Amino acid sequence: MGPSHGPVIPGLGESREPGIHDRVSGREQHVAQSWIPGSAARPRNDGGEVLGSGRARDQAAPPTSALPAASGKSEPRSTPRTVHASCVLLDEIGILIRGASGAGKSRLARRLVAGARAQGRFARLVADDRVALACCSGRIVARPVAPLSGLVEVRGVGLLPTRAEAAALVRLVVDCLEVRPDRLPAAGERAADLLGVRLPRVAGLDLAELESILLDSERDFRDALMTRV
């Protein structure tokens, strides 16, 4: 094992150079072949090397890629828009975390990654503090903003290196609020509009409560959460 290159956030691991480039249009896409735990097929990079064979990655396997598949044709996509937010990939679900400065976006992102890994699930940061969003074929793709790629903010400490995914499909929006929300949110508050795409939304003040909701592993609960639009 090589020397450490900086502090490590508990549950987030060491920094690395992106190994899988998730591009979303035409011939540019070369996402590694997805694989399912227990199957014989293992993801490979462009050089044919089996990913994960050289050094340990995460506890769980990378999720099946949900990024738009390459079709050989130019797919419609919007100009990327940078938003003040964080994003994590939990299993195959990209979660966009929004909120005012100091609301706990980075803390919630770190807690989700650590908590999911403790459950043996795949989880990794995509971007912290700034996220580049683009609409591709009616789906929202999140990517890190170059100067902050592979970095996570710890208030009072600064920016620290961490493993990060190159991209994720956003399937859920979480808003960290500064005031406690209504007990039963109105129908219009259960969805968020991102670049013209409506996505399910969860909002709350208590980070521990949000973490508990988002890490609930019961399939019926997760399905209900993801179909709130």
How does this structure look, described?
The chain has 229 residues and is an alpha+beta fold. It is built from three helices and ten strands; from the N terminus they run E-E-H-E-E-E-E-E-E-E-E-H-H. Helix 1 packs across helix 2.
Structure in a nutshell:
This protein is an alpha+beta fold and 229 residues long.
Provide key terms for this protein.
single chain; 229 residues; alpha+beta; five-stranded mixed beta barrel; two-stranded antiparallel sheet; 28% strand
Largest sheet: 5 strands, mixed, barrel
- Count of separate DSSP helical elements: 3
- What fraction of the residues are assigned to beta strands by DSSP? 25-35%
The string of secondary-structure elements, in order, is EEHEEEEEEEEHH
**Distance from first to last alpha carbon:** 46 Å
Q: Could you tell me the radius of gyration in angstroms? A: 17 Å
- Sheet with the most strands: spatial strand order: 1-2-8-5-4
Total number of β-strand segments?
10
Structural class: alpha+beta
Low-confidence stretches: 2-57
What is the general shape?
A: globular
Q: State mean pLDDT (0 to 100 scale).
A: 74
- Give the fraction of residues assigned to helices: 10-25%
Q: How are the elements arranged and paired?
A:
Layout: E1 81-90, E2 93-99, H1 105-118, E3 123-127, E4 130-136, E5 139-144, E6 151-154, E7 158-161, E8 168-176, E9 191-194, E10 197-204, H2 207-214, H3 219-226
Parallel strand pairs: 2-8, 8-10
Antiparallel strand pairs: 1-2, 1-3, 1-4, 4-5, 5-8, 6-7, 9-10
Helix pairs in contact: 1-2
